[in-house]
Amino acid sequence: MNEMTRPMVCNPVILGPVDDRGAAARVLGRIAELGLQKNAWEIDTFGYTVLTPDQVAPAGFTDGLRDHILDEAAKVSGERPSLDSGTQDSPFLTFLGRTQFLPEILFTDRAFEQAMMNDNILALVTYMLGESCLMTAMNAVVKGPGPEYLPLHVDTPEPSPLPPYATTANVTWLLTDYDKANGGTFFLPGSNRWYRAPMYPESIDLEPVVTPEVPAGSVLIWHGNVWHGAWPRTTPGVRVSLLTYFARYYIRDQRDDAVGHYSERVTDEMLARNPERFAVLAGKKRGDVCDEQHRRTSMFA
């Protein structure tokens, strides 16, 4: 095996005792309190986990998210997408396929703030990214039928070899049923522990991937290092999802180049009606858990 084909593997960094001001105890305690140990294990082992509808929201909440996204899509296109009879004549062709992309959905309805602040979701995100992490993007996606698929890739923005811990995480609310025919997301389980992005031939080799088949109302959460992609939708209608991207406090805002930081858009009214953690996630307030040095010495801070 030559240098070009040798797999890039990185050993996790072993740290000595650190003073994290109780961050690890709080984060791990919250996982135990909410009964999310299995989900945390799945993230560590496979790179992703699924929260069932009864773990995330009361009946009707996700239907409301879906309907509001379809209403917002209609404001852009002039026609409300059909859940059951959409065709591949969609004028929207993006890097995600035949999709209508709504990047500022957070500011259209309070329900999206509530989705962002969901207890179980935040507990798992904090487990991966620490108490000082930020929400760097919230996008609604309406995906119609078409031949395009999204090859395997990672969400971590750093070059390979990737850090042995998460620096980003994706939370996707599945607002319609998810499977291969509906254009669902697929994963290469365990690839989060390879600490590198796929090379091109690997990115299009989809034989070993796994596609979660889960009902509408579920939430899919994954580690930024895991290899994942999305199938083309081959059935009529549309796949509706809400993607929320979280990152460690030093990772650049995904929307920075386009419409400005989320922190610049968040209003005083939004801050007043949400818990204090909302301001930290939105970049309006630095967490008071640890100072700069403490955040650098504990992955839970």
N-C termini distance? 40 Å
Q: What is the strand content?
A: 15-25%
**Strand order of the main beta sheet, please?**
1-7-5-9-3-2
Based on the coordinates given, report the CATH architecture: Sandwich
In which range does the helix fraction lie? 25-40%
Order of helices and strands: HHEHHEHHEEEEHEEEHHHH
| pLDDT averaged over residues | 87
Outline of the structure:
The chain is of the alpha+beta class and 301 residues long.
Explained architecture:
By secondary structure, the protein is of the alpha+beta class. The protein has a single domain (37-297), classed as q2cbj1_9rhob like domain (Jelly Rolls, Sandwich), CATH 2.60.120.620. It is 28% helix and 16% strand. The chain contains 11 helices and 9 strands. It has helices spanning 23-33, 37-46, 53-56, 61-77, 110-116, 119-129, 200-203, 262-265, 268-272, 276-281, 292-297; strands at 48-51, 99-102, 134-143, 150-153, 168-174, 185-187, 219-223, 228-230, 239-247. The strands form 2 sheets. Strands 1-7-5-9-3-2 form a 6-stranded antiparallel beta sheet. A 3-stranded antiparallel beta sheet has the order 4-8-6, with no helix packed on it. α1 (23-33) packs antiparallel against α6 (119-129). The longest helix has 17 residues, at 61-77. The radius of gyration is 19 Å and the shape is globular. The protein starts with 22 loop residues before the first helix and ends with a helix. The model is unreliable at 1-15 (pLDDT under 50).
